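Form 7-S
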Amino acid sequence: MFHCVFFFYISSIVMLAMLGSIGMTMIILACALPTYNLWWPMFVLLFYVLCPLPTRIAKRGADAGDSFRAAHAMFATIGIVMSSFALPIVLARAEVIQWGACLLTLAGNVVAYATILACFFGFDYSDSGMW
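Output:
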């Protein structure tokens, strides 16, 4: 029984590491390919760091029935996620980066946020539901 649970957690960690590296590879390719050769799309990494913070802060100080704080945390998290998708589009529309770099950054965003969600909900050990 212990071996099955241990194998599940190890395989989950390996899968999350692989997905994270694929997402980061897409973003680095959007910056470093000779056709694009601009490092502006790397600013989405700031959004990856900021994304889980509002929810973690709200979980830390929330009571069982505090839906007001939960709504504000979800609103802030959604704003951060939407900003990370909007930044490459705005940069491409302003012709700072090319559209190929924008598409690679958006694909990297999808993979990176899927990894963050899998880690956030897959390894959460709270017994009281989401909050």
